[in-house]
Every structure is written in structure tokens, then in C-alpha cells.
Amino acid sequence: MAPISQKEVSVGNRDASTARYLLKFESFSVLSTNGINKYESSVFESCGYKWKLIIYPDGDVEDGYDHISVYLAIAETSSLQAGWEVNATFSFLIFDQIHDKYIVMRGMAQRFHNIKTEWGFSKCISHETFKEPSNGYLVNDKCVFGVDVSVIKNQGLGECVSLLNETKSYKHEWKISGFSKLKDKLYSEEFLVGVYKWKLLFYTTGNADQRNNSISIYLVSVDAGSFDRQKRVKAKFSISVKDQISGARNKRGDSSHWFLAAEVDWGWAAFMPLHEFKNPKKGYLVEDCCIVEADVSIIGAVNSLT
């Protein structure tokens, strides 16, 4: 019977990030004799994760008849973050005691997660091949199984898009007193919409090309400055200045915008002409006080896909 593979794996040609774990049996046949149908190794570590090597000497109960079944299982997952997943490449080995070398039986790359915590082969090696004396796998009832494990990191960039059909809006009122004594640029207090923090930005004499012509008002995402490249949040919002005489509002049309690290604010440079805003008959600025109202809802988010 020919060996299962002619690929030899030595310590010298393995990647430095690969962990090898070996499992030596002094009396392999005694496992079955003593009713040990499944043997789990001690926990070992590779790339910061804990693993176990699992051997079924007579095959697992489902599909391993007349074979040895071998599996790799991720262990101690309770310490991992919710929604964890680990991508790993691994190869199962057996030691050729005649030629003093490890032979790859089978290998694969798989994704371990909370629903699927172990991967392997129910028919990893047949009893006939394993017991063939010329192969050197079982000598004087002694054998050595092993596994090489490495965790795959940085598999590429991606993003996960979440959009909402129905959104709950949040209304925030900002009362600005002593308007004539304020600086040209001021921020409101922070307010929360969903899990995201926001504030309003007000330019009392206008921003950019609207300076000394209009008041400028923007919605600002407090969180966006720390977003990674894939992270974005889409908000639907309206901003208005209250007419304190009639109770009416100078309301802009509803707007929506994707807020990201490179664009943390969005709004109107020419929100309202200064002469209109300061006209006492309009009721926007009364006793040196104005009231700004914002209506904000979250309609989508994009996160990194890892």
C-alpha cells in the first residue's frame, strides 16, 4: 500500500506563524480495547487562539467506518467577542517512522464560528493504509499524529450595509441666548440618535462665501471623526429656526447624507440671509435669543466586513 502523500513537512520550511501540535500514542490499539472511541488533545495555542486535536481511532459514528477520523476544534471560545469568527488553514500530519518524516494526510482552509467550531475529515486515513508496515505509520503499536495551524488575517477589505425601512426621529431644540455677544462659530450640546452622537454647528455671520451674508447651520456627527475607511452613517434630517412671534418655522427641505471620517458635517452655508434673520418683524431673533430645532433619524449604516 502506497503512502497517503509524498509531501513532507519539516520544521525548517513551515511559516513562523504556524503552530504545530503533535499527539503520540504509545499503544494505539488499546484505545479501542478500552472503549475510547474519541480522544481530545490538551488545549494548545496558535496565533492567539486555543485549539484541540480530536482523533476517532475507529472513525466517527456518522461516516468514518474503517477509517481514522481527525478533526481540529477551536477551544475556549467563551473568551472571544460576540459574533466571533476565525479563518484558519490547517494540515493533518502523520509521522513516517521508517523514513523519519511527517507526511501530510489532508489539509484545508475553513472558517470557524459559534455554529461550526470544528472541521476535519471523517475518512482521514483508512485502517488499511495506517496499518501497512511498509508505510511506517504504526510501528510496535506506536504512532504520531499532528496538525499544523495558522490563522488567516487581513483577508481583504469589505463592507456590510444596513438600511432601515422605518426610522424613529429625534427632535432636538437648541436655545441660543446673548446672540450678539457670541463668537462667529459655536456648537450645540451633544444629543443622541440611536447609538450615535450629534451636535449642531452655527456660524452667526455665515461660513465660507456666505460670510457676512447669511447664517450657516450644519448637522455634525460626533462619532464620524473616529470612523475607519469603511464606516459610514446615513442620517435624514431637517433644521429650522423658530419664529418666536408666530410659532412658525423657517424649515429647510428634508436632507439626507452619509457621514464619514472625511465628511463629518452637512448642512447649509446660506441657511438664511442675515438681514432676514435679524429683522425684528420676522421673530427669528427676539431679545437677542434664537431657537434652532433639528429633526434627525438614522436610515442606514456601513461597517467594515471582517
From TrEMBL:
Residues 18-149, 169-296 form the MATH domain. PANTHER family: TRAF-LIKE FAMILY PROTEIN, UBIQUITIN CARBOXYL-TERMINAL HYDROLASE 7-LIKE ISOFORM X1. The lineage of its organism: Eukaryota, Viridiplantae, Streptophyta, Embryophyta, Tracheophyta. Coiled coil: none annotated. Transmembrane segments: none annotated. This is MATH domain and coiled-coil domain-containing protein At3g58250. PROSITE patterns: MATH (PS50144). SMART domains: MATH.
